[in-house]
């Protein structure tokens, strides 16, 4: 074995789980960003956590509103994932710029992309500073899924997104 940097390690753990985290901007519209630093944390109660870089608008809006919808994109959203990772919601309306088609969720002002495979409606319980990121610990309020869609994963670390094919 050879010694690796953390960036090289993310290539070794590929495919990495991939989400599009949807949050509410100050003007009430939805911001969307790809986030791979996501993990289930607890079954009972159902909890999930994710980390965002300190400059991320997603993290800022979750901490300001206490709410987010963590979604897993399906394969039709590959291009939108990379576009949403290329700029920040702090100065860009990504939904408008990339013409992202959204669906509404019941009793929720945050919208999610059409072609979503899985969606967790979450409430923020706690945010902790972790090195150059903030880690957000969330309660899962609702989960919606579509069995007919194929999930996207991050490959080559976080450089490429594609479905994962099971080796038989
Ligand atoms: C595949 C992929 C995975 C990413 N994972 C993360 C992540 O886990 N945490 C993070 O802070 N940024 C991650 N990023 C980078 C953010 O998506 C990017 O900085 C984005 O511009 C943030 O947008 P926001 O400022 O609207 O939150 C990832 C980008 C890509 C393409």
Strand fraction band? 35-45%
Secondary-structure element order, as H and E?
Answer: HEEEEEHEHHEEEEEE
Poorly predicted runs: none
Please report the distance between the alpha carbons of the first and last residues.
Answer: 27 Å
Rg, Å, rounded: 15 Å
Concise synopsis of the structure shown:
The chain has 168 residues and is α+β, with helices and mostly antiparallel strands.
General description of the model:
The protein has one domain: Electron Transport, Fmn-binding Protein, Chain A (Pnp Oxidase, Chain A), CATH 2.30.110. 32% of the residues are buried. Strands 3-2-6-9-10-5-4 form a seven-stranded antiparallel sheet. The longest helix has 9 residues. With 168 residues, it is of the alpha+beta class. It starts with 5 loop residues before the first helix and ends in a 6-residue tail after the last strand. Strand 11 and strand 12 form a beta hairpin. It has four helices and twelve strands, in the order αβββββαβααββββββ. The protein is globular, with a radius of gyration of 15 Å. The structure holds flavin mononucleotide.
């Amino acid at each position: 074995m050879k010694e690796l940097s953390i960036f090289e390690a993310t290539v070794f753990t590929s495919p990495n789980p991939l989400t599009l985290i949807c949050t509410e901007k100050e003007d009430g519209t939805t911001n969307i960003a790809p986030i791979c630093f996501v993990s289930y944390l607890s079954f009972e109660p159902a909890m999930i956590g994710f980390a965002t870089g300190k400059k991320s608008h997603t993290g800022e809006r979750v901490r300001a509103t206490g709410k987010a919808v963590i979604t897993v994109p399906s394969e039709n959203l590959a291009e939108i994932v990379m576009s949403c990772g290329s700029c920040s919601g702090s100065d860009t309306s990504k939904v408008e710029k990339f013409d992202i088609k959204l669906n509404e969720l019941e009793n929720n002002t945050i919208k999610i992309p059409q072609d979503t495979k899985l969606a967790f409606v979450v409430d923020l319980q706690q945010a902790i500073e972790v090195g150059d990121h903030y880690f957000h610990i969330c309660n899962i309020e609702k989960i919606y899924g579509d069995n007919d869609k194929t999930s996207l994963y991050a490959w080559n670390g976080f450089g490429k997104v594609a479905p994962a094919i099971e080796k038989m």
